[in-house]
Specification:
Strand content: 5-15%
Distance between the termini: 58 Å
Number of strands: 5
InterPro entries: LipidA_mod_glycosyltrf_83, RgtA/B/C-like
Largest sheet: 5 strands, mixed
Protein name: 4-amino-4-deoxy-L-arabinose transferase and related glycosyltransferase of PMT family
Number of helices: 23
Subcellular location: Cell membrane
Membrane topology: Multi-pass membrane protein
Keywords: Cell membrane, Glycosyltransferase, Membrane, Transferase, Transmembrane, Transmembrane helix
Number of domains: 3
Shape: globular
């Protein structure tokens, strides 16, 4: 690599690594899901109720680096930059030049995938893993190097430990390879060596799932009942067309080029994989971002094909047109797609049409801000309220105090922002139901969320509300903090009975 392509790659990689630091307004906190993933570093295990363990080990690394927000944002940016590098290398494999790399790189940057890369969730690593798996298969087809299948197995195993979503790619790839000209891959012994590597890597988590009654099944049922029930199949399709806006024409053309462009014929299994994966997701009424990992390779294919179209005659002068068509819509919508405005400014900028497009949440209802943005407000305020409430407890009694929250976002945020100032917060939500501390004596209870229910109040001699989140644009607006004292001696046993009941509900079998 030399000259212009090298400089372009450096630019794109630096942009991906720094974008997260200036495209998020300073008034936003982390996202509620990020707090859960960060807290998993304090409870390392082979599995969790919500996700496999890979993200927890990244959280442990973040913790070792000091746990600052800049490190939280660094790792999804890093995974995005590595995805960009793989797009670049795929274009090289397909004999594309600098223009193909430019188009593919710009389209990756100016898409919903960049928004994914701003959040510390398993999704960025999932997209990277899908891209690497397809890149290795393209290299295998092109070079015939069977040892690449061992790397494919390694990647698949790690991808499984990151997010079970990779199983949908595998489910699409296997029949796609069988019906394509690359079915001979099933005669290669290295494929089964790679499969063994993948199974060995995945086995600790599979064993954990079996030992704990397959909580992933409960998690999927809960997801289907509370979130996917509000997803329409055509909504999924519309989301795929909206990922790249006008640039969707590039990945659509990439799919079509697999049919009629001779140099791409050996890679037709990618087109079949796309169709099969999409059919699965549409049937299951999946969220739109579940399929994002399939697109980076299509961007590389599309970039190479459009470079070929614009390589001769007067069509060469149209090359800048694609760059403009990719960049302009993103610049126009930038302040609505990324949290660069203050919440108040963003709320003021929301017209009825924009609210319909950007502010419909997983509950199917319209709100004042996009859901992810509302999920990044109020957490510091909540942690400060919890600390002030905790300080009202006599020093000698703080070891006999428990902080009980309504959901994992509340517990995770309190532990992240105020973890050194008070005892760890817990909740019956998500993985926290497994993380209750042992307490023989409990004299004070801090309840975070809605007002304590009667079944809790009856175990206390009194309670007082010490504050609430007053940010009206936060998803947690109105969340209160309550101090209960004079806790009955029987309450700890009752609490742990409820914990066991909740843990049992996560088991697919008893």
């Amino acid at each position: 690599m030399s000259g212009r392509p090298y400089l372009l790659l450096i630019f794109f990689l630096l942009f991906k690594l720094t974008f997260n630091y200036w495209a998020i307004y300073a008034g936003y906190d982390l996202h509620r899901d990020e707090y859960l993933h960060l807290d998993q570093a304090n409870h390392l295990a082979a599995g969790y109720l919500s996700v496999p363990p890979f993200t927890a080990f990244i959280s442990l690394l973040i913790k070792a680096l000091g746990g600052g927000m800049h490190w939280v944002r660094f790792f999804p940016a890093l995974f995005g930059a590595l995805t960009m590098l793989l797009i670049w290398k795929t274009v090289e494999l397909l004999k594309g030049g600098w223009y193909a790399q430019l188009i593919a790189g710009l389209l990756f940057l100016c898409s919903a995938l960049s928004r994914i890369n701003t959040l510390f969730q398993p999704n960025s690593a999932d997209i990277l893993a899908w891209t690497l798996m397809l890149y290795l298969l393209i290299r295998y087809v092109k070079e015939g190097n069977s040892r690449l299948l061992l790397w494919l197995g390694l990647t698949t195993g790690i991808a499984f430990l990151n997010k079970y979503n990779v199983l949908f790619l595998v489910a699409g790839l296997l029949p796609a390879l069988l019906i394509s000209s690359q079915r001979k891959i099933f005669l290669d012994k290295y494929l089964y060596g790679g499969l063994l590597i993948a199974c060995l890597l995945a086995s600790p988590n599979v064993i954990w799932q079996l030992q704990n009654g397959m909580p992933v099944i409960h998690h999927m049922h809960e997801l289907a009942e509370t979130q996917l029930v509000n997803v329409e199949r055509m909504g999924f399709v519309k989301d795929q067309l909206g990922i790249f806006l006008i640039g969707s024409l590039i990945w659509i053309t990439a799919l079509l080029s697999l049919i009629w462009y001779a140099p791409f014929r050996p890679y037709r299994f990618i087109g079949w994989t796309f169709l099969l994966v999409m059919a699965l997701f549409i049937y299951l009424k999946a969220k739109g971002y579940y399929a994002y990992g399939i697109y980076p390779i299509l961007l590389a294919l599309g970039g190479v094909y459009w470079e070929r179209l614009f390589s001769k005659g007067w069509l060469r002068y149209l090359r800048p047109v694609w760059a403009f068509l990719i960049i302009f819509p993103t610049v126009w919508l930038f302040r609505l797609i990324f949290p660069v405005l203050s919440p108040q400014q963003l709320y003021a900028a929301m017209t009825p049409l924009r609210r319909e497009i950007f502010c419909r949440w997983e509950d199917g209802k319209l709100h004042d801000l996009p859901q992810d943005f509302a999920d990044m407000r109020g957490w510091r305020e909540l942690a400060d309220l919890a600390v002030k409430t905790y300080q009202q407890v006599p020093d000698s009694e703080r070891k006999n105090t428990l902080i009980l929250c309504d959901n994992y976002g509340q517990a995770g945020a309190i532990n992240y922002y105020a973890g050194k100032a008070l005892r760890p917060a817990i909740t019956f939500s998500a993985d926290y139901v497994c993380w209750f501390p042992k307490m023989d004596s409990l004299h004070y209870l801090i309840v975070v969320g809605e007002a304590p229910m009667e079944y809790v109040r009856k175990y206390a001699s009194g309670d007082v509300k010490t504050g609430q989140i007053n940010d009206v644009l936060a998803r947690e607006y109105g969340t209160g903090v309550y101090l209960l004292q004079g806790i009955s001696p029987v309450f700890p046993a009752k609490l742990f009975e409820w914990q066991r009941q909740e843990q049992a509900s996560f088991r697919a079998w008893k």
